[in-house]
């Protein structure tokens, strides 16, 4: 398009609409910017790697405090990545601060919290463990599927594609069955209800989680800290409402951290590499200036 002089300027710009109910999903402008989709002026920084839209990332902050993780950090601005990805240790600091947990661990804790007392009573009554979760309406089968099957499907088949509804049901069901199995084992050792539930709750944290996506407690979003990226000597803030994704499923709302760990190999002297994906670009209108080899950010409107 530039070679044929079809665009007024040698740049393109992105605006993402986060409102799922809006008729307009977003806007990609070739050869210019749409002033109705940003506020103020863009902050421009030079491209440091021509093979990517890669820029320097000076620091990232949690609750306005530097994490000290960024030494020679760089970032790729990528509209094709849904999340914000960064080095494992750095992203862990953010997810620890917002109390993000793996989906399997979180569903396990939820099962213990909501059904622990009921499971205890039903086990004492003599109900068969393999039918307990279906009897209280958590699992759809009724003892015809072995306990380990659903757990294995959720924990081990991390590379396969499943229907979202089925995955959600599998996680809840597997969490219930794990709780039943652990509680039954502890009960056989004559432990008290309180000690059994406390022990099983701790075991939930040890479960492997099949994806890099982490869940958070939706009710805690208002108290979560702001996360900021320092680019071009300016702090670009993301509020919890901006970096937490809400997914509606089976009349329930799941909240997902927008930060995922991804260690990308880089050659010295380059430092850790981040990917600023759609979550960042939803908050900040982004200009990719090919003519001047720079990227600009302004608050999205």
Automatic annotation (TrEMBL):
Top-level taxon: Eukaryota
Q: What is the lineage of its organism?
A: Eukaryota, Viridiplantae, Streptophyta, Embryophyta, Tracheophyta
One GO MF term, please?
aspartic-type endopeptidase activity
**Residue span, Peptidase A1 domain:** 1-298
Q: What is this protein called?
A: Aspartic proteinase oryzasin-1-like isoform X2
Q: Which family does it belong to?
A: Belongs to the peptidase A1 family.
In this protein, which residues make up the domain named Saposin B-type? 66-143, 169-210
The record's listing under InterPro entries reads: Aspartic_peptidase_A1 (IPR001461), Aspartic_peptidase_AS (IPR001969), PEPTIDASE_A1 (IPR033121), Peptidase_aspartic_dom_sf (IPR021109), SapB_1 (IPR007856), SapB_2 (IPR008138), Saposin-like (IPR011001), SaposinB_dom (IPR008139)
The record's annotation in SMART domains points to:
SapB
Protein species of origin? Gossypium australe
Keyword annotations for this protein, in alphabetical order, are: Aspartyl protease, Disulfide bond, Glycoprotein, Hydrolase, Protease, Zymogen
Q: Mind telling me which Gene3D superfamilies this protein's record contains?
A: Acid Proteases (2.40.70.10), Saposin-like (1.10.225.10)
Its GO biological process terms?
lipid metabolic process; proteolysis
